[in-house]
Every structure is written in C-alpha cells, then in structure tokens.
Amino acid sequence: MDENVVRVRNLRKEYSGRAVVSDVSFDIARGETFALLGPNGAGKSTTVEVLEGFRRRTSGDVAVLGQDPGRAGLAWKARIGVVLQTAGSLGALTVREYVQQFARFFPAPRDTDEVIEAVGLTSQAGMRVAKLSGGQQRRVDVALGIVGDPELLFLDEPTTGFDPQARRDFWAMIRGLSAQGTTILLTTHYLEEAEHLADRVGILVGGTLKAIGPVASIGGTDARTPLVRWRDVGGMHEHRTAEPGRFVAGLVEYLDDEPADVQIVRPSLEDVYLGLVAEDTQQETGVIEPAIQKETAR
C-alpha cells in the first residue's frame, strides 16, 4: 500500500493567464493530519478543490489515493470525505435519519450508530438537526463526511464561529478520528488549531508554498530561535539565542543584578506564519482568488 495518500508535484492553476497557485509540491502520508495554512487569497481553496476533483489544474502532477482526481470516478470519490466550510442542512430530519440517508450514497458505509457515537452525538441521535446548537450541527457535517468510511477526510475551516469550549471539544473528536487511522487534510485560519491537530503544516502565501514541515520545526532553525528580552538603565533590549537560559545567567553576572522585565519568547507557529506573510511582497498587491464557478471534473 502506498505510503503517501496525496502526492502533488509542481501544481499550477491559472485564471486568464494569471497564476493563483504556482509550483506547489507536497505529500501527505497515510494516517497523517496535514494542515494547509495561508491568508485569504493564498491559493488554499484552489489547491484543495484540485485534490478533491472539483477543479481542474493548469499543469503539474497530482495523485490522491493513487489516482488523478481530475479523472477519477465514483469508486474513487467513495474513498474520500469532504466537510465544507458551510454545508446545507436537512433540518426536518433527525441526526440518525440524516446520517442514514447519506450512508446510502456509499458502497460500504460505516454503521450509523457507530458514526454518531464517533462524533459525540449519541444523546442527540433522535433530535432534529434544526434543534441542535451550531457546534452540534458541525458535528453532523463531520458525521456525513466519515459515514462512507473515507481513507482521506478534507476539513475546510471546521470550527469557524465556534466558542472556545466547542472548538476544543471538536478538536478532541478530530484527534479521535486520526487515532483510528483516518488521513486528514485540514484548512484553518486558527493557528492554534493547526498546532493542536496537525502532524505537519504547509504555509501558502501568494500561491506559493513558503514552508512545510512538522509543527514544532517549521520555518527552520533561525525562525524558531528563542528571543530574550530585558530592560536595564539603557532601555529595552533583545537578543536571539538557542541557549536562552545560559544567556540570562550570563546577563545576570554581567549586570551584577537581576535584569528587569526578563522574557524568554519561544516563537510559535503563529510567529513563523506571520513572519512569512509579512515578508511576501505579493500581499501588498492584494492578490485575491477570483470568484468563479467550480469546474466539475469528469
């Protein structure tokens, strides 16, 4: 069995001769949770829609579950699950009825009650979807995404509009799916969400993949080097060092006193992300993905 569920090489997508995704390459390993990050207009949606088979690429090689998504048929589509940022709702149906109806679209669906339990809605299984909270309705969306027992699950901004507790509850559910072996491709604007859920992240800026790697090390050594800040009679100072504890100890000895306002700042994913976005000159031009109709893949 192929180790990589997704393989992308030199992906390019143009509209009217203008590239919104350019020379993007990455892999997603089986069982991995991969987060694709980037500001609005960076090319995330276009990239994901190419992988889902909803949009045709201009050039490059793409394989999802071993097939070209632009040409794959229904059997391939039954192997993926898609949870869109916004989804319609059959509010007149109960949770169980809704999941059962959706299960009929797949050749070998998961057990309905098992799916409902997996998304934490067993107590609400007999309730109409319209009566559920926003967070619970989002769980129904995920239930529909996994009822076909997909090998690969696409999650597009899954917790937009959630309160903090609902978001953390949702994270626990997604970690449970990952533990069961589901490969997950996540897009999110919440960088904390990516830190909690993803094994690796890729950062798209201006249609180009600027960085890719494990959450703890993405951006490289320089971007992840801690920063020591302190105040003395000369004002506020800062120094970047891989050994912040040793530096502070030396600083105390040098000053022969405890420096004021000492901080050791260890760069987070958010710091790396914002640094990459700030460096990209394309952000100054206001590049925005054009709003066009989805191209239906044959």
Low-confidence region ranges: 285-298
Beta-strand content estimate: 25-35%
Q: What is the CA-CA span between the terminal residues?
A: 26 Å
What CATH calls the topology of the largest domain is: Rossmann fold
CATH architectural designation of the largest domain: 3-Layer(aba) Sandwich
**Overall pLDDT level:** 87
Continuous helix count: 10
What percentage of residues falls in helices of 4 or more residues?
A: 25-40%
Largest sheet: 6 strands, mixed
CATH superfamily of the largest domain: P-loop containing nucleotide triphosphate hydrolases
Descriptive account of the structure:
The protein has a 6-stranded mixed beta sheet, with helices on both faces. It has a 3-stranded antiparallel beta sheet with strand order 2-1-4, with helices on one face. The chain folds into 2 domains: 4-215 and 270-285, Rossmann fold; 226-266, no CATH class. The longest helix is centred in the middle third of the chain and has 16 residues, at 164-179. The chain is built from 10 helices and 12 strands. Mean pLDDT is 87; it is low at 285-298. It has helices at residues 44-52, 74-77, 95-103, 112-118, 134-146, 164-179, 191-197, 220-224, 244-255, 269-279; strands spanning 4-15, 18-29, 33-37, 59-64, 80-83, 152-156, 183-187, 200-205, 208-214, 227-232, 235-240, 260-265. The chain has 298 residues and is an alpha/beta fold. Strand 6, helix 6 (164-179) and strand 7 form a beta-alpha-beta unit.
Layout of strands and helices, then pairs:
Layout: E1 4-15, E2 18-29, E3 33-37, H1 44-52, E4 59-64, H2 74-77, E5 80-83, H3 95-103, H4 112-118, H5 134-146, E6 152-156, H6 164-179, E7 183-187, H7 191-197, E8 200-205, E9 208-214, H8 220-224, E10 227-232, E11 235-240, H9 244-255, E12 260-265, H10 269-279
Parallel strand pairs: 3-7, 3-8, 5-6, 6-7
Antiparallel strand pairs: 1-2, 1-4, 8-9, 10-11, 10-12
